[in-house]
Design brief:
CBS-domain; 2 domains; six-stranded mixed sheet; 13 helices; binds adenosine-5'-triphosphate; ATP binding; transport
Length: 367
Amino acid sequence: MITFNGVTKRYADGTVAVDDLSLEVPTGEITVFVGPSGCGKTTSLRMINRMIDATGGQILLDGVDVKTIDPPTLRRGIGYVIQQAGLFPHRKIVDNVATVPYLLGWDKGKARARAMELLERVGLDSKMADRYPFQLSGGQQQRVGVARALAADPPVLLMDEPFSAVDPIVRASLQEELLRLQAELNKTIVFVTHDIDEAVKLGDRVAVLQVGGKLAQLADPATLLARPADDFVREFLGRDRGIRRLSFVSGDELRLRTDLTVPASAELSPPRGANEPWLVVVDEENRPLGWIASKDLPESGTPADARLAPYGTFVRGRDSLRAALDATLLSPSGNAIAVDESGRVVGVATREALDEALALIAGGVGD
Ligand SMILES: Nc1ncnc2c1ncn2[C@@H]1O[C@H](COP(=O)(O)OP(=O)(O)OP(=O)(O)O)[C@@H](O)[C@H]1O
C-alpha cells in the first residue's frame, strides 16, 4: 500500500503543485490520478519514486517513509512507464526490456530470457526483439515500455500518461492489454491521465485532482459517476456522465422476453407471431440472423425468404447496460438481443425493459 499523508510540494519558485494530499493506494489495485492540466498529477506520481521530493508530509510505501530509502533501492521495486515509452534509441528492443535486470547484475542470458518472456506477455512478436525502437509503431513502443517496467517484477508500477500519444484504437487495445496483465499480475499501479474515460475504464479507484494539487474526490468509478462530490468534479466528468454510468451497471438487470424468436426454417402457415411487431429470426443453432417486422412475414414459406433488418447484441452475464443500449440503437426494432458467450440467443430486451432499467438507475442517483 502507498499512503500519502498530508503531502505538499512547493517548487523553488513558490508554485504549490500539490497541497496537503492525503490518500491511500491499495495494494494490488489500479488507482488513477486524473484532473486538468497542471493539477499536480505528475508531481504526485514522481514523489512516490523520489524523482521529486515532497516539501511537506510523508509518502509511505508499505508503512516505510520513502525519504528513508535511497532512491536507487526504492526505484528497483517501482516500475515506471512514461508517455512515448522513453526507450533507448540505440539499444535493441530485447536490451531495452532487459535494462533493469542488467543493472541488477543478472547474467546476460537470464536477463534476455526474461525480456523475451515479457515481450510475449505484452503481446509482441519475438521477431521484434532484435529491432530498434524506431522500427516499431507508437503502440508497439508503448508495449515495450510496459515490458521494460515489469522486467524486474516490481510490486509497484507508476504509469504517467503512458497511452496518450497513440491513436484511439491502439489506445483502447493497450488499455485492454493492461487490464488483462493486471488480472494476472496484481501490481499496485498508480496511473496518471487527463482523460476521464481512460480513468473510469482502468481505475479500481479514481482520484480527481484540481489545480493546486487538491484532492477533489476519491472513489470507485461507478460511485464517482453517480455521485460527484462537487461542481468541479461534476463539470470535469462532463456531459456524458449519465451514459458513462451505464458501463458500470450489468446488462443482467434487464428483463428478457424469450417468446420473440422464430427459426429461419419455420413453416409460416398458419401465420404466427403477428401480434408482436418484431421477431428475431434465428438459425438452427439459435444464433440471430436479423429482425423481421411481423407485417413483413410471408403468408407461407419460411422467414428465410424474407428481408431481415440489422440487429445488435449484448452478452448476458458479461456486458453492461451501455452495451445493451448500444444494441438497441443498432436495430430498427429498438430491441436488443441478449446472447450467451457463444452467440446463441437467450432472450430479447425490449424497449420497455430498457426503459424500466434506466428509470431504476435514474431513481438511484443521489442515494
Ligand atoms: N520544476 C518546476 N518548477 C516550478 N513549477 C513546476 C515545476 N514542475 C511543475 N511545476 C508546476 O506545478 C504544477 C503541477 O505540475 P504537474 O506537471 O504535476 O501537473 P500535471 O497535472 O501532471 O499536468 P499535465 O497534465 O499538464 O502534465 C503546474 O502548475 C506546473 O507548472
